[in-house]
Structures are given as structure tokens and as C-alpha cells.
Protein 1
Amino acid sequence: MAQVSFSKAAALSMVLLVASMAALVSAQEMAPAPSPSLVTGAGFSLPVSGAFVAVSVVVSLMGLLKM
């Protein structure tokens, strides 16, 4: 049996490890990133209730009609 020094065996095992890791990475399928989902209502948020807004519109319209 041929004698192999420890440093050559360590170097060979490191080369095999790197080659196997490269094969695993290249075997993975590259999929495109998913598109961001639309956040509904993010640009239209009212800090007050809809009833308060409706009442204030009606009151302002009543004030305009009295003029």
C-alpha cells in the first residue's frame, strides 16, 4: 500500500469537500424572487371613524346650504 502523508490526505479531503459543496450549490434550481404583494388600504388609512367623517360632511353641507 502506498504511503500518503497526512498533509496530502488532508488537502485531498478538503478538495473533495469543496467540490461536493460546489456540486450541491449548482444543483439547486434558481427561481426568481416572488413579487411583493400589494398592501390594500395602506395609503388610505383614516385615524377617525367613517361615521365621524360622514357627520362632519353633512354638517358642513348644512352650513353651506344656510348661506
Protein 2
Amino acid sequence: MINVSSKVVQFVVSRNKSIEDQVLEIISSFNQGVNDVELKGYGREIDRAVDIYNMLKDKLGDGVKLEGVNIGSEVKEKRRISYLLFKLRKGF
């Protein structure tokens, strides 16, 4: 049996999915026993990552806690791309 509560699940924001679908994926992960989630937006998806976090906060209130925010950049396909990373913890 795998203990998913100690596992950190990372969600990378995508333009191909709606914000609502991505929010529901994170809520589903919390409901399946995941306690820690990392939400990461690259480049143009940074604004969507903020929108997803705000929607999660609106829907769950104190049910989601912001543990930290990291900003930085990574080299992908020979280009440096900025990112925004939210570290979230289940609060319910």
C-alpha cells in the first residue's frame, strides 16, 4: 500500500485545459489523500497559475494553505523560461 499523504504531487499549468478543470484536478487529488501539491506555471502560464490558486482559495477557503511561493527560471529547449511555483497544503 502506498502512502499518498506524504507524496507531493506537482501540477504544471496548461493552456490546453480550462482553469476550472485544473482546479478540479487539484481538489480531486486532495480528496484522494494527497496533502501537498505544487502548482507550477511557466512563462505565459504564470497568470493562469495565479488564477488557479485564487479559484482554489475561493472554493476551499481555509481548506487550502499556501506554504510558499518560489519564482525562478529553468532552461527548456535551449531557452530560459521563468516560472512561478505555489506550494499548497490541504487544510481539511
Protein 3
Amino acid sequence: MDPMQEDNYSDEFDMQLIGNFLSFASRGDRVGLNQMLRDGISPNVQDYDKRTALHLAASEGHAPIVELLLHYKANVNLKDRWQRTPLTDARLYSYRDICRILEVNGGKDFINDHPMTFRHEQDCIEMNFDISELNTEQSSIVEQGVFGESVKVKWRGTWVVKTVIKSQIYHPVKMILSAKDNTLLRQLQHPNILQFLGSIVHREEMILITQHLPKGNLDGILTTKVRLDIPTALRYALDIARGMNYLHEHKPLPIVHNHLTPRNLLLDEGGHLKIGDYWVQMLYEQIHPNQDNSQRNDGSIMSSNQSNDTKKDIRSFGFIFYQMLEGRVLSNMNFDKSTDFELRFQISRCPNRIQQLIQHCTSKNPCQRPSFSSVIEILEEVSAYLGRAGCSPVC
């Protein structure tokens, strides 16, 4: 085997091993995690976002996993890409028992235990990508989003995704994300959204550089499995809701996706979904900045106030959640126009409260659709109930 190919194979094998380890921690699988620790894996391995098993166990509420990792001398204060420690995550999701365990073992929260500092505008340095730094020798096509042709390439030794935006998005205007938009997108940091790294304008092409996730997307998972078991569907639904709630709570204006589909919901090494393509709405808005109504590439009309309409994202989420549970083929459905689609649940499989939630999310009347913060609350309550009832932990 060629040495370069051998190194590449080794990298992918190591990431798969790390992904399995982190997945055990995220799911609360103490047996699987303990076996890997006994086999010699370091408790401090990190994924692309520099998150450890301790980060994931703390954010998912798995106290026994936290204690097991600490027994194996896991570093309690490793920081992830967003400078968060496991204690930061435990506090974020209000897991008080885990907070106490981490604090007793020397855990620190470097974000919330210090006064907030403000960065001056001149301190925000633009990250400029040079097209020559993208190594395409071992590149391969990946399905990571809907609105461009994506290729896995290496940038400064790290796998990233290079996406050339399709012409219908920027035609007839040459599309360039402003420096302000680039800075905004790079500053968005959440475990359930794909990391935006920057953009390049090369000749007539607009190129986006984003995080690479090797495990595919939800559309591929549903194609293989058709439908998901309830614990997995609930866990994925929580991932989507948490990521979307983060975008919708952005100040001063919400970041609205408007194009949420199973194809841009991507699986990371720890078995969690991340939301991609959340920047596409910015591209549409820059093409038609002063028009009340805009012609979309699919022929429909997009009004200017649609950019702040969070209810369309809720409806898309409802149909995606339904597809995960019931296995209906909705990939080619226009969620915004599917007013005549009838939801049919297998009563024995799906809890009544989840049926009601999906019905509210997909309601024809936008006023009846809940916010993502309300969705998260319901999903967490149902997950906790199923866990107490003896089902597999789902959150």
C-alpha cells in the first residue's frame, strides 16, 4: 500500500474508533465504554470539535458515565472548540448532580465563572482562505448539503468540505458573502450546527469551506433503515431542535433556515446530528435585498418577511420527525406546500404526546406551531419518561 494511502486509512480507522467511543458516552452505554477503556483507549480522545467523552456524557446527563471516565483519570477541564468544559455543558443543560461530581473533581467553567469580556471590532480578524491551501490529492465527493457540489479536501492537514455553490443561487448576480456575514457565520458555535469556516471567491465561483463530517446525513440513514426506533428518533429530534433553537434565538434577528431537509442534517463522530445549509438564506437575501417578493429557483415566491419567519422551520422539523418514526418517503416533498398530506401513526409505536407534537408542528395554521424551545421541553420530558419506564436512554 502507498504510504500516503496507508496514513489516510489509519486516520479514518482512528476516527472510527474515536467515534465509537464517543457514541458509547453519548448514549450512556457503560458496558461498551468500559470495555474500550480497558482495551487502552485514552479517555481524553476528541472529535473534530475537540469534544471529549466527558463533554458528551455531561451534556446528555449520564452521571454513571461521568464517574466511570473520572475513574479512568479523564481530564476534567479539557476545552472544546468553543472553550467549553464538561462543567460548562452540565450547567447549560441543568444537570446538577453532574455539576457536583465535576466540581468535586476539580471541574471549572471558564466561561460562566468569569466576567463577560467584549471584543472590539478591530480584534475580529477575518479568516482569509487561500485556494492554493486546499489539497485535493485525496479529494472525494461527499453529500453534505443540498445547495452545492461538495468535495472533501485537506486544509492545513485537516479534512474540510469545499462546496461550490450552484449557479441557480447566485444567478444572475455574482454571489459574495460579505465580510460581516462571514464573521457572523464563523462566530456561530453550537454542538448541533455544522461549523462554518469561511468562504473564497475564485474566478466566477463562490466556494464555502465547512467542517467535514464522515458519517453521512439523515437522508442516507433513512434510506438504509427506512424508519428509526423511537429512542433514536427522539435523540435525533432533540439534536435538530437544539440546533434550530440556537439559530432562532440569535440576536438581534433570528437566523431562519428555510431549507431544512434530511439531506442537510449531518451525523458527527459522536452519533449526533448537526444542521448544515443554515447560511443559504443569506445568499438569497443578498441577491434580492430590496424586493418585496423574490422568485425562488423552484418557481415559488419568497416574500421579504419570510427571512424572519421561524414557523416554516418548525413545519419542516415536524415532517422530518414524522419521517424518522413512520418511514414515509418525504424527501421530494415541498414541506411548505404539503397542506393535503395526512399524518398516519402506528399507535402502538408512537407515544400520544409525540403524535400531538408532530401534528402541532405540521399544522396548516402557523399560529398553532410551537417554538423550538417548547419542542425541546416536550422531547426531554418524553425521553425522561421512557427512560424511567425501562426503555433505552434517549437523551
